[in-house]
Structures are given as structure tokens and as C-alpha cells.
Predict the 3D structure of the following.
Amino acid sequence: MVSPSITHKADRRKGGTPPDPVSVRRAVIRYGPARWVALTALIVVLVGAAVALLDAFNSERRMREQIFRTNEVMFVLNEVVRSVLDAESGRRGYLLTGDESYLVPFETNRTRMPLLLDRLAAAMASAEQMERQHRLAVLHEKKLAALEKAVALAKASRAEEARESFDTDETKRYFDALRAVIDDLRHEEASALRARAAHAAAIERRTIYILAVLGLIGLALVLAVMSLAWRAAHLEAEAADMEALREARARSDLLAKELNHRVKNLFSVILSIISMSARHETDVRNLTRKIRDRVHALASAHAVSQGQADRSLVSLADLIEATLAPYAREGPYLQVSGPDVNLQVAAITPLGLILHELATNAAKYGAWSREHGVVELAWHVHRASIGGLTDEEETVDIVWKERGGPPVSEPSDMGFGTRMVKNAIGQLKGQTIMKWAESGLSVSIRIPLPKWKIQ
């Protein structure tokens, strides 16, 4: 029976015609490259966002460096001005009072100014600034030389000459030039700081714009990838539904054919049961009871082989017992051996069909058609490779061997029973080998154990 949910999903298209599984799979394949393109574009967007953030980070870093350098230059220039003014004040105090304590700032300027000028040179960022720093050093040397000359004259008791040498226009020009160079350096540093701040603000605005655009593009790509993934998953689910529908229909067709085959064979099987039961029975009541019990067992085996058992797992031995019970008779007609093996319910129908077909043929044409005919049925579990299975998968080998029956030979053409056995083996993903010998039919069946997948 085909599942209603599968039929509904398969027939929901216009006209109730299910889509072609091949076309559905092709549609799924077409979505694959599109998803990769969308993912690649999303990666490019993320890389672009990372580059924009890195550019903004570098701009902020350069801004911090500029602020530090400007602060350094401004501090050194202020210290230069203060040192020069202290030296000038000390010189004037000494000339007016003759107190040598006023010369302390002057001497401090003599030792401190070279250090300040070297520190200023290390903070210069351009050749023009280095040139102004050099000019500042030259002007300071000239100013310092003038101060030293005045102090030397004062120490030589030539105070009038010292005052006259200091109050000349040349000394004032040196001082004015010194202030002009310092003011130029301050102006350049302030301008550089303003330019760097404007550049950092422009980078920040550009980064915000780029991140906004990339964010929208990334969101669109994420939605596109999700949409493609959903469509691909939807198509894959439809393809799985189509495959399940095809498998269910194939199984339904097989069961329908088997039903016709069994109806044709049913009377022959019942006649064989009556014949086997009547061989050694003279009491009519006992004969009737045996026939009734065996016909009932035949119905039970038929139910098991149709997958109507009420358990999720069924023992292989139980399945064999239920399927072959209708053919029971006096004497060692059946020899069964093998370990405990549990089968999933999905395996009951195909394996039950195989056993029922073999038993029917044995009763009609094989070992059980003779009084002393025997069937040996054995199975064992081992690891082997079947089709796509690896060597790590377990399989069960079932051997059906008849002896004591009439001589048999391989049929010239494949009847429905043989085709049914091969189809059922295909459903179990297994293999079968049939040998027709004079001593009787021998059938070897190998099927995988871990997962039973019915096609």
C-alpha cells in the first residue's frame, strides 16, 4: 500500500502529476553553484568590511601619533621660550645688582638648551621643520653669545659697556627672530594636527558609509543563501518523496504479482498438503485435523510474509518456522540450524516470499514431493562485502539444500517464481546463487544485516 502522505506530496502539482525525480535532482544540482557564488560574495563583503575597519584603525592610530608629536613639539617650544626668558632675566638682574645668584638661570640655559634642541629635532616631521629647528639653534647660539659677552664685561668691572652691548638693536633682532621661528613651528604643528583630525574624520565617515552599504549587501546575501538553501532542501525532500513513491509503487506491484502467483499456486499447495497428510493417516478425523492445522499454518505464514507481524523485530528462526509450518509432516523432512538473528520488519516480506517460493517448489517439484525428501536449511553470520557495503558490514548467509527428491535441471526460461526471488533479493541488497544438481536444488542467499532498505 502506498503511503497517503507520500501520494499527497507527490501529486500536489497541477493535474496531480508527480514531478520527474530526474528533473528535481537537476534543479537541486543547479542550486549548488548559486549557493557557492552567494557564499563567495558574502566572504568578499566580510573581507571588504575588515579592510574598511583596518583603514579606520590605521587612521586613528596616525591621529594619536600626530597628537603625541604635536604635544611634544609644543612642550619643547614652551620650554625653549621659558629658558631663554629666564636667561635674559638672570642676565639683567646680574647687571643691575652684581649678585651672581642671578646667573643661575643663565648657566642652566647654557646646559639645558642643547638637550631641548635635540628633543625638538627628534620630533620634527619634515625637512622644512628641520631647517627651522636648525635656524632656531643658530639664533640661540648668537643670543647666548651676546649674553655671555655682556656677563663677561660685567665681571670685568665694565658694567657700562656691558649694558651698552646688550641694549643694541642686534640683540633685539636676534630675540625677535627667535620668537618668529618658534611661532612658525607652533603654527605648522597646529595646522598638521587640524589636517590629521580632518583626515581621520573623513575616514570615519567613509568607513561608516562603507560598513552600512556592506551590511546591507551582506544581509541580502545571507537572505539569498538561506533562500537557496531552503529551495535546495525543499527540492531534495521532493526528490526523496519521489524516490519513496517509486519504491512503494514497485513494491506494491511486486506484491500484486505475488498475490496472483500465490492464488494460482494455492490450490496446488493445498492438494500437496492433503497428499502429504494422507500418506500415513487412515483415521478421517485425524486427517481432517492435520489438514485444518496445516492450512491454518499456511495462512499464518502468508500473514508473516506480508509484513503484518505486530513486532518491530522478528527472529529469522521464527520466520522460517511460520513460513514452512504448512509443509510439516512425519519424519526428518526439514533440518534447520543457525544462530539467533533478528530481522527488521521491513525484511520479513521479501525474505518470506523467497522462503515460501522455495517451499512451494519443493512441495510441488522438489524434495518434498517424495516421501523421504529432506530440505537442509542453515544460516550463519559473518563480515563480507556486498555491492556498496564495506568489509565492516555484517551479512547473513542462508543455504537451502534439497536432497532425496526427483532429479532437477535448470529451466530453459525464467518463470515468475525465479524472477520474484531475484526481485526480493534486490530489495534486500543481497545476492543469490541457484544450482540445479541431480541430487536436488541448492540455493545460497547472502543479505546484509545492519540496515534493511527496501527498494
Q: What stands out?
A: Residues 41 and 221 are 7 Å apart (CA to CA). Strands lie at 313-315, 334-337, 342-344, 374-383, 394-403, 431-437, 440-448. The mean pLDDT is 76.
